[in-house]
Specification:
The complex is a heterodimer. Chain A is about 45% helix and about 10% strand. Chain A is built from twelve helices and eight strands. Chain A is globular and about 55 Å long. The relative contact order of chain A is 0.15. The longest helix of chain B has 26 residues. The N and C termini of chain B lie far apart (about 75 Å). In chain B, about 40% of the residues are buried. The chains are: A alpha/beta, B mainly alpha.
């Protein structure tokens, strides 16, 4: 199996642990990642200029298409924006013409058909839970995990095609594979607050706090994320703004899976998480 | 006389200019951390850092960087082979010409007592170095003309720099060519070294020089008689040969000399060599005087920056050192454009017509902004837009061959712009209540607002009745909205709820929603859109409202700018029908 790896803007510079953990589990699972130079997916500029945002995504998709493998991103915001671009480019003839007229100057062309996958989809749907399960050597028993879905991969379902938007199971299934227990928590599908962080810190913090308290009430040992922005919000931002909130650490899904696959915590960038998770006995590799 | 005066004048301007520019490295303030630093503290930090580096083991690291990045310029080679060839040609061609040719009396003659500018290998080397510079300038020009992206970034400064270099080199080659064919110079040399009036000696010498050295004499010289040439050679051998290699070694100028033979006599009569000599040395001195004020200054600032930033160690940088680095970074930029070629948000610039989205242009714009605080507000507003579109990915810093810590400069510059009132859209929109924006929008849409389809040729939802036709005002969108839930008093904190916004749009009152805080506080979680039983694209509509407000009100980011003053805003295109 081979994927074009699209880490987006933030992972290399601000969350290298996500990059390390993703590469770690993919190597352990025998999936190849092809690196290439990409531009931004356009997610941040969508507030100002939808078409510029879709053009950015279209360029990423066209570049990946040239490499000739499906694209995989660990970031749910990148995933969402790339999927929006695919949707609008497929639907809207005027947009398609305008975007391809610009891309043509670089000998690029957006074509429908290139597969965009999120990290979790690759593991559950492309590789399969059974294949992941056979690679697990250190089941993370006795860990209660709150799976944080992340909005931009999940909704709107008719565009992103990730899972059932009202009752998704992909994340819980993947947590179960590691040997850990996925807790049921009412706010699992809600926003982490990250999109408003630079804009309205009061509301952003309230959203985050509610989720943390909800996860705590559900008895979770950790919040598990699969998105650059969500992880940043629940880890670094939380530490700075909500020092008195329940001390639930945020762990990236490939870090959790990596431990189960027998990868050393340092190889998964666990030491870079600002709120350290101290595994209980049985959870350590 | 003119030579000496202009030389000292140029040197004076150059030294004063260098002092002026280097003092900025310890006086310019970039970023809030630098507010309280005194110049004294910054000078102390700079000298302390220099001394510590020179007396510690770090000096070996510095030598290493000097060899790899300054002398071999491997940092450029990593980017592109042709770029490296270009820069190596320009750099070494220029440096060697300065050392061997411009400084021949104080330098070359010291190391090579037999030095004569007309003797090989110097004669040949001078042309070789000149060719290197021309080749470098040629590659630079071709790259900037042929590469679409580089062409877009090329400014007058880049063109002017290449023109300056070309002027010095071409005038030098022309001068040498004209000197080769010059009879007056031949006569002067004869007067000085032979002191002979005897035509029987001079005529063969002329014949020999006309045949072997390309001198063109006013009266035709017979160069066909081998006996006469042999006789000329005897004199030549006695008086001339020790200082003169055959000009054919000057492989660039000699062909030029051959080419101008038909007009050589006229050139000799008007002493073209003197004119070209003036042009050559005056243009060279002008370049010297201009060095601190233009692109040439990177010759000083970039190596300094490479050494300081390249020796970056894990130990923390003090605020004073950081302040100095940022100021130096502005000068160390060579405007090579590599950062912009790799910039991850560069494609956005293809649709939002703001060149400061590209890091190389943003840095230049910011440098202007900090140096003259009175720069126009429209320019600063554009700079702010470019700055806030940046995603802080750090790619520019990774690829910068001058070693500038751009990521750090962007963070500081964004904070400075915010402090001066140039903020992100979310913040300036919040400064006015929704009804004021609505009022402004209603004025605009009648008077100057571009038509909707023209602004959004491809996707436009809010002007299409079918977008809202399904809305039955069931309030599910409001009920599921986490922002509404998080607000203590939605009416006060958010102005409108999502369902109220949809209602306004149904009533074609979009203007009233543009400045609503609900629109600007949307977390884009798509709960509303996902849950809408009627399939209304609520979140997409909120996105579009922000797009519209941004386009309409952008000029108002800074007080009340005349929208015409930044008319080169988003590209307007002919309307096309949406499917």
């Amino acid at each position: 199996m081979k994927y074009v790896y699209f880490p987006g803007c933030k992972i290399p510079a601000w969350l290298p642990a996500y990059d390390r953990a993703t590469r770690g589990i993919f190597k352990a699972l025998g999936i190849d990642l092809v690196d290439s130079e990409f531009n931004c997916c356009g997610y941040p500029v969508r507030h100002q200029h939808l078409e510029a945002s879709l053009l950015s995504s279209a360029r990423v998709l066209a570049l990946a298409d040239q490499i000739g493998a499906p694209l995989m991103t660990p970031c749910q915001c990148c995933y969402g924006n790339l999927r929006h671009a695919q949707y609008w480019l497929g639907e809207n003839r005027v947009l398609r013409r305008r975007v391809n007229a610009i891309l043509r100057k670089e000998n690029l062309r957006w074509k429908p058909g290139i597969r965009v996958r999120h990290l979790l989809q690759v593991l559950k749907e492309d590789l399969g839970l059974a294949a992941v399960a056979t690679a697990v050597v250190h089941p993370q028993k006795d860990i209660r995990v709150a799976a944080h879905y992340g909005c931009h991969a999940l909704r709107p379902a008719n565009i992103v095609g990730f899972d059932d938007p009202q009752a998704p199971t992909i994340f819980e299934d993947l947590i179960a594979v590691t040997g850990a227990t996925a807790v049921d928590w009412p706010l699992r599908l809600n926003c982490c607050g990250a999109p408003l962080w630079e804009k309205n810190r009061v509301i952003s913090t309230r959203l985050m706090q509610k989720k943390i308290e909800d996860a705590d009430q559900a008895g979770a040992d950790m919040i598990c994320t699969a998105c650059t922005y969500c992880q940043h919000q629940f880890d670094q931002v939380r530490l700075e703004t909500l020092p008195h909130a329940p001390p639930i650490p945020a762990v990236l899904y490939p870090q959790l899976l990596g431990l189960a696959l027998g990868i050393a915590p340092a190889g998964l960038g666990m030491n870079e998480n600002r709120i350290q998770w101290t595994p209980t006995e049985g959870g350590t590799p | 006389m003119i030579f000496t005066i202009s030389l000292y004048l140029a040197l004076g301007i150059c030294v004063a200019g260098i002092l002026f520019r280097t003092q900025r490295w310890v006086t310019l303030r970039i970023g809030p951390e630098t507010d309280t630093l005194t110049v004294g503290a910054r000078i102390t930090a700079a000298t302390g850092q220099t001394i510590r580096a020179l007396v510690s083991r770090r000096v070996f690291k510095l030598i290493g960087i000097f060899i790899t990045d300054v002398l071999l310029q491997l940092n450029i080679l990593h980017q592109s082979f042709w770029r490296w060839i270009m820069h190596i040609c320009l750099f070494y061609g220029m440096i060697l010409l300065i050392l061997m040719h411009a400084l021949d009396d104080p330098l070359t003659r010291t190391f090579f007592p037999d030095y004569e500018s007309t003797l090989n290998p110097f004669l040949w080397l001078r042309d070789l170095f000149g060719l290197m510079v021309l080749a470098g300038a040629g590659i630079a020009m071709i790259r900037r003309v042929a590469g679409h992206r580089l062409r877009q970034m090329t400014r007058a400064m880049d063109t002017f720099t290449l023109f300056f270099i070309g002027m010095v080199i071409v005038s030098g080659m022309m001068l040498e060519a004209v000197q080769i064919v010059s009879e007056p110079i031949f006569n002067e040399m004869v007067d000085e070294y032979l002191d002979e009036d005897d035509e029987e000696i001079l005529a063969p010498l002329r014949a020999y020089w006309a045949s072997q050295y390309g001198v063109v004499f006013e009266n035709p010289v017979d160069t066909d008689d081998p006996a006469v040439l042999a006789e000329g050679y005897e004199t030549h051998d006695e008086y001339c040969i020790s200082c003169h290699s055959r000009p054919v070694s000057a492989f660039m100028s000699y062909p030029v000399a051959r080419f101008i033979r038909p007009v050589a006599r006229r050139f000799n009569r008007i002493r073209m060599d003197t004119w070209l000599w003036y042009i050559h040395f005056l243009s060279a001195f002008a370049a010297l005087a201009w060095l601190p004020f233009g692109k040439f200054f990177h010759l000083i600032a970039t190596p300094v920056n490479l050494l300081i930033c390249g020796s970056r160690t894990t130990d923390t940088v003090s605020p004073a050192q950081l302040a100095n680095r940022r100021a130096l970074g502005l000068d160390a930029c060579t405007h090579c454009g590599i950062c912009s070629l790799h910039c991850k948000v560069a494609p956005i610039q293809l649709l939002i017509d703001n060149i400061t989205i590209l890091p190389s242009e943003k840095l230049a714009g910011f440098a202007r902004h900090v140096r003259h605080r009175h720069g126009s507000e429209a320019e600063a507003a554009l700079l702010a837009e470019g700055s806030f579109i940046c995603t802080d990915c750090g790619r520019c810093t990774e690829v910068c061959p001058s070693g500038i810590d751009l990521k750090d400069i962007w963070q500081a510059s964004k904070q400075d712009l915010r402090r001066q009132g140039f903020t992100e859209a979310h913040h300036w929109i919040m400064k006015k209540p929704a009804h004021e924006w609505a009022h402004l929008a209603s004025e605009r849409s009648v008077a100057s607002g571009p038509s909707f389809k023209k602004t959004f040729p491809a996707i436009h939802l809010t002007d299409r009745p079918e977008t809202f036709r399904g809305c039955i005002q069931c309030t599910i969108c409001t009920t599921v909205c986490p922002v509404v839930e998080a607000a203590d008093d939605p009416a006060r904190e958010l102005d409108l709820t999502p369902q109220q916004i949809m209602n306004l749009l149904r009533l074609q009152m979009a203007d009233d929603a543009l400045g609503a805080r609900m629109v600007w506080n949307c977390v884009t979680c798509y709960m509303c859109q996902e849950h809408c039983p009627q399939g209304v694209r609520v979140a997409d509509v909120l996105y579009e409202l922000r797009n519209i407000a941004y386009r309409r009100f952008y000029p108002d980011t800074v007080h009340h700018l005349d929208s015409q003053s930044i008319s080169h805003r988003p590209k307007e295109e002919a309307p096309e029908a949406a499917p």
